[in-house]
Task: structure prediction
Amino acid sequence: MTSAERLHKVMAAAGYCSRRQAEQLIAAGRVTVDGRVAVIGEKVTPSTEILVDGRSLGDVQRRYYVLLHKPVGVVSTLSDPQGRQRVVDLVRDIPARLYPVGRLDLTTSGLLLLTNDGDLAQRLAHPRHEIDKTYLVRVRGHLDRQAVSRLEQGVRLEDGLTAPAKVAALRNSGSHCWFELTIHEGRNRQVRRMCESLGYPVSRLARIGYAFLTLDGLEPGAYRLLTDDEVARLKVL
Ligand code: URA
Result:
């Protein structure tokens, strides 16, 4: 929410209830804004304190945890000046404002988490937790032993040396090479820059793993909700 919006819309967007139910709650006098009883149709801003039966909207709203298979050509940002499709457009039928946990480039496909649980999103994105992210990479050329050991030991990029990465499942195919690269940092365009700096331009990139999560058969554009068990495991990473 960037400016004032109608209260019932904000309550619905928060995943608390439908717009109609929000209007009913407001009409019943159960909603307060900044300490006074709300009226139907009034507008609120992001700093307005909204309480339902005395409890903050943030405390009572349902949390959603979504695992999306992001297709190539969809942006991970919340707004796009060029009007391209956004990842949040692919999860429209979830009745909450979801935010991506980190980003994937426009031309990267694969596993992206989205949630309206700001605490967990922040935790997961924090470098301290060193969450493994595995990418399936296709580069031009055949990766030699020296390049593999450079990736494994750390590559010097303009923003510093990368942490050691893991290389697996290396195989050549024609003039290309496929491999899996696992890193736990999340710098901008990191995998592309690591490979490019060694002389191997990336021609395909897909994230296939995030901590213990995989794409497990989800088609590009499809998503699923995480199970309670998966959410609990993410919370203790
Ligand atoms: N590394 C990249 O270069 N791009 C991504 O989208 C993710 C990781």
